[in-house]
Protein: RecQ-mediated genome instability protein 2
Organism: Rhynchospora pubera
Amino acid sequence: MAKASMDYELAALKLFSAQLRGAKQEPHVNALCLFGIRFQRAWLQGVLVSASDQGRFLLDDGSDVVELTVPPLLAQSQWKAGQYVMVVGPYTPSKSGDEFPSVQAQKMVDLSSHPDRESMWYLEVVEAHKLFYLHNLT
């Protein structure tokens, strides 16, 4: 997705990382399409499997791995491998099947102190899928 203005009227889709690979670039607009829904931002939760001082992280939600780019302001927090986090930000598909999809974190929250958040996340994504995404496919 080309760098352009963010349309905050488009929802941030609650997704499993593997679902991102099915997103297609919309022609002539700065948006992607998944399940018939236009979006720019993805809402993911998962475990940080690697962290770096340069603001690059890998997030694994059990379905796939996504590369996170964290801006300096968010990178000031003490992000460590093993933390369970929530991330919302613009999604960029991988250029080839060998690369990880990428999300530029606009919001990142450590949910590690809430052990039920991971199991609840699976239910939230399934609920969003049933209520919103499947509805758009019919």
Notes: The longest helix spans residues 117-137. The first strand starts at residue 13 and ends at 14. The chain has a mean pLDDT of 87.
